[in-house]
Structures are given as C-alpha cells and as structure tokens.
Amino acid sequence: MLLLMILLFCSLRVVTAQTNSTGSARALDALLQDYAYRALVRPRTRTGRVYDGVVPSNLTGIMVSAMRLRSGSLRRHGFGMYKEFEIPMGIVEKPYVKRLVLVYQNLGNWSIVYHPPPGYVYLAPVLGLLAYNASDLMAKNLQALRINASGQPISIKFSDIKSLPEGPVPKCVSFDLNGTFDFSDVLPDKTCTTFQQGHFSIVVESTALSPVPSRHGKKNNSKVWIIVGSVLGGLALLVILGLLVLLAYKYKKAKKMQHMERAAEVGESLEMTRVGSTMAPAATVTRTQPTLETEYVP
Ligand SMILES: *[C@@H]1O[C@H](CO)[C@@H](O)[C@H](O)[C@H]1NC(C)=O
Ligand SMILES: *[C@@H]1O[C@H](CO)[C@@H](O)[C@H](O)[C@H]1NC(C)=O
Ligand SMILES: *[C@@H]1O[C@H](CO)[C@@H](O)[C@H](O)[C@H]1NC(C)=O
Ligand SMILES: *[C@@H]1O[C@H](CO)[C@@H](O)[C@H](O)[C@H]1NC(C)=O
Ligand SMILES: *[C@@H]1O[C@H](CO)[C@@H](O)[C@H](O)[C@H]1NC(C)=O
Ligand SMILES: *[C@@H]1O[C@H](CO)[C@@H](O)[C@H](O)[C@H]1NC(C)=O
C-alpha cells in the first residue's frame, strides 16, 4: 500500500510539473532578467549598446542580451536591428519609465521545455523580447513592462530556422506573458510581426508531419508510458507480494495442521504399560469416572 502511494505521489508530481509551464516560463524570465542585467557594464552602461549575457550552467543553450535605451529615443527613433528583432519607431511602454532595458532571449533547445506548443513542432528557437525599468540596474525580479508598437509592428527575422517541410503551412506563434498564445501568418523572408512584448517562434502542426514524429508528443508519450508502466509495475509487485504473503500463511497453516494432527495421533494412542511380562495399552486418564451405585441418586 505504501509502495503504491509513493508511486502515485511521484506520478502526480511529474504531471503537475508538466502542466504549469506558464509559472516556470515566468520564473525563467525573472532569472534571465537578472543574468541579462549582469551583462550591463556598471556603472558606465552605454545607452543603445547590446551586451551579451552569460547564463548559469544549468541553462546552457539559452542566450540572453540586454540593451538600455531612453524611452523617448525609442519612441521617436526606434532602434533598428536588435538581434533578430527590428524595432520600429512608435514604441511606447506602460507604465512609463524614463529609461528601459530591452532583454533579448533565445531559448534554443530549451524552447520546448518552457513553451510547449501543444500539437505543434518548432521550426525555430523561441525568441523573447521583454522590457524592464532601467532605473536600478542591480534590480532582480522586475515586472516586465508592457510595450506597444503604436505605428509599425516589431518584425522578427528568424535566422536559425529549419527548412520548411512540404505540405503543412508554417505559422508564427506568439506567447504573451499570461501563457496565452496566438498564431499569425509567416511573411515572406521568414518574418513574423508583433505589436507587443512576449515570446515568438515558427511552428507547424505536428499531425501534418506524420513521417516526422513530433518531438514533443514523443516526449510526452514516453513520460505517460513511464507513469503507466511504473503504476502497473507497482500493482504487479503488490499482487506478487500479496500472493507470497498468502502462500506463506497457507504453508504455516498447513504445517500447524500437520503438527496438530500428529499431536492428536500421539494423544489418541494409548500409553503402553508393562503388565507382568507383557506390554499392554493403558489409558492415562480414565475417560468416564466410575460412580458407586450408592452414590447414585436418581
Ligand atoms: C501556474 O503558475 C502560475 C504562477 O506561478 C499561477 O498563477 C497559476 O495559477 C498556476 N496554474 C496552475 C494550473 O497551477
Ligand atoms: C539554475 O541555477 C541558478 C543559479 O545557480 C539558480 O538560481 C536557478 O534556480 C537554476 N535554474 C534552474 C531552472 O534550474
Ligand atoms: C541544451 O544543450 C546543452 C548543450 O548544448 C545541454 O547542456 C542542455 O542540457 C540542453 N538542454 C536541454 C533541455 O536539452
Ligand atoms: C523604476 O524603478 C525606480 C527605482 O527602482 C522606481 O523608483 C520607479 O518607480 C520605477 N518605475 C516604475 C514605472 O515602476
Ligand atoms: C497600442 O497603441 C495603439 C495606438 O496608439 C492603441 O490603439 C492600442 O490600444 C494600444 N494597445 C495597448 C495594448 O495599449
Ligand atoms: C493577460 O492578463 C491581463 C491581466 O492579468 C489581461 O488584462 C490581459 O487581457 C491578458 N491578455 C491576454 C492576451 O489574455
């Protein structure tokens, strides 16, 4: 029973860890904000210069950068190319700050971990663009500012994109900070557009790719099979244990019965007593007490 409970507990933990990817994506954003800010050379941080950060070793494969801008300059001039993002003029942030830091994220092979696209396969890594208050460059756990492109949208020119498969139509996907996602068309030259901060990539439906199985689906399936397998294995183990206990019990009972029978046999056999020169059986206990006739009261 204990074994089963431990198994169930473990599988539940796996499931909950998997379903709440929004929470973990926000936690990752917070961590990457910190590591991107550390890249800014302090105290003489240059405005409009891109600083590439270093992520902790447990997140190898992710790239981050940070760039500080005056919000007035961003609104009036935009920036041009910031990694894969082309920042047009007309960007306003909410709430207003005097200076902001644009944090760039390339989630690389971690894309699927933090932004699992249900039923889709990534053709490009997930890229993130988030804006933060630049007043305190030592700050951690900052809340992302909302940015809004009031004129042209921000363009995302994916450089690292897998060759498009024949048949299924690739789509741009954008995840906003609530974990909700939207699809839009991929523009010529493999570009997606957005009016807001968030995370972006290009996907195709995994069902449309029957010869190439979805990596995500496979991973999920194998996880499910691991859970089902361990629960079934646990149950089988329990049944075997139960059978063993039953067998042991039966064996013990059988032995006891044998013992009792033997004891009974011994008890039944009359003791042999020497009477003269011959052995004669004699009862140890007289079974019916003799009664004298005179004692007998009718
Ligand atoms: C996931 O995590 C976020 C933030 O930690 C939380 O607000 C949300 O309620 C969680 N969702 C579920 C389904 O547990
Ligand atoms: C990675 O390591 C950093 C620092 O060593 C730690 O703060 C963070 O929680 C870790 N993140 C994950 C996702 O393991
Ligand atoms: C991504 O790749 C790096 C090495 O390039 C590896 O250390 C890391 O574990 C990988 N992450 C995932 C989620 O597979
Ligand atoms: C930006 O940070 C500064 C210093 O931490 C703070 O005083 C200011 O209120 C922040 N601005 C916003 C809009 O949060
Ligand atoms: C973004 O800016 C446009 C134009 O100024 C405005 O119509 C729209 O409501 C804004 N969106 C948000 C989410 O602030
Ligand atoms: C995200 O959440 C905020 C409030 O939590 C809400 O105002 C906003 O409309 C949501 N955005 C989307 C796209 O669901």
UniProtKB/TrEMBL annotation:
Q: Where are the transmembrane segments?
A: 224-249
Q: Name one GO cellular component term.
A: membrane
Against InterPro entries, the record matches this protein to: DUF1191
Signal sequence, renumbered to the chain: 1-17
In Pfam terms, one family for this protein is: DUF1191
Q: What are the alphabetically sorted keywords of the record?
A: Membrane, Signal, Transmembrane, Transmembrane helix
Descriptive protein name: Uncharacterized protein
The species this protein belongs to is Fraxinus pennsylvanica
The record lists the lineage as: Eukaryota, Viridiplantae, Streptophyta, Embryophyta, Tracheophyta
